[in-house]
Amino acid sequence: MFQIQARKKIAIAMTAALFLNVFLMPGLGFKKEVHAEEGNENYGNIALGKEVTSNINSPDVPKVVDGFFNGAVGEQNSRLYVSGKQAQGSFIEISLQEEYSLIGSGVFSGFDAAGKVDDVAQNYIFQYWDGVQWQDIPGSQVVDNQQQANTTYFEKPVQTNKVKFLYTGMESFRIKEIVLYNENSDNNIAYGKKVIASSYHDGGSSGLDTRKYPCFIVDGDRVAEDVFWQPHINNDDEEHWIEVDFGKEFKIDRAHLYTGNEDGSKVLGSGKLQYNAQGEWIDVPDFLLIENKENFLEVHFKELISTDKVRLVCTEKGRDFIVRELQVFQVAEDNNQDPEEPESPKVDDTEGEDKPAQEQEKKPKKVYADYHGPRYTRDIQGSTGLWSYTGNASKSKTTDTFVNYNGDLIGKDGRNQIAATAYPIVGMQSQNDPDYIEYQILLAKTAHIDGFL
Q1: Which helix (H) or strand (E) holds 132?
Q2: What is the pLDDT of residues 212-261, one digit of tens each?
Q3: Residue 205 falls inside a structural domain
Q4: CATH number for the domain including 103?
């Protein structure tokens, strides 16, 4: 039976976030995506295909927003080139056509020459149009960059409809692509952030510039054929990893991983997600891949994690794989700030009076939760109710059509073999237990749920 003392300790300490994670989410651990996520034209690289103007006299200027990060086949080194004499003060202005909230940028530059990298964009800054004049974007200035793929996360989001890339150095440079990241609304804090990796595929012996840059896993594009991270596999002893730096600490509760090709090839078969805890990498208990064959994985964490960095590690050495996107989500109620307390509903003591339509519309909507049952225990009712279930879905197209759950059996992990997608954190309980009923009501009040159906 559920003990009163334990019930009070858990109910008082339980937050609304934990309630939603345990009782309302469909499951803990891995889940297949049933329907592909709909694309969002305002999510990802919003510079793509936009109108550009420049003081650089070259027909290659429009190529900086054509989506070819590495250059089209056969022209990988014929992108926009600016000589050292013209470099300082040269600019590229991108008209976004409508106002966006920008959080970062990416600049892909340089090319390979005789085995070494040359003409990388080393010194530049981004500016935004405030409606009157151009202003520098705080946090966008880059000095002495040596990376061909360089992403920058702004100090704070910038609202604008025009952006300018302004070169501040005096050395020659070659631009392949300019990317602008729009603020997303789904709490994916990995989007547009700084990324480093153990290695990346550099095109091999093909001679073509077909790099699979690490920053591609946080660009918001989950389906593009040639935009993903692929490590450089040259021996069986290397450990391959990729790290995302959020810039500050967040509370996270789930992650999405998009990996491999549609035909099932090059998926990440064995791996794990880790988070930074005061300089030490700790495994996320719920995110462990063993012989995975799925392109999409959705993982809900059993416990909230506070961290400023995560990294994905391949634990199967020598395996060739690709990662298209890694999304990490902060707790919806958190958003890195204290939530506002909802106002208490006002008591209406004017019964029988007609209220104006506008006043009726202002009344807050009630929130109700669907209450499933019956769930019993042997020591209360003498049976297990729907904790035990046996059935045969003869018309189902699944491989296994027969299910058999026996709540009386206890597995090696100490858990009853109950018919439930998510195992309750308080174990198998009876819905007729007064202590358990009070516990559920306290949780509902914490989450501002008005009643059960």
Answers
A1: none
A2: 778 888 877 776 666 788 887 766 667 889 999 988 999 998 898 989 88
A3: yes
A4: 2.60.120.260
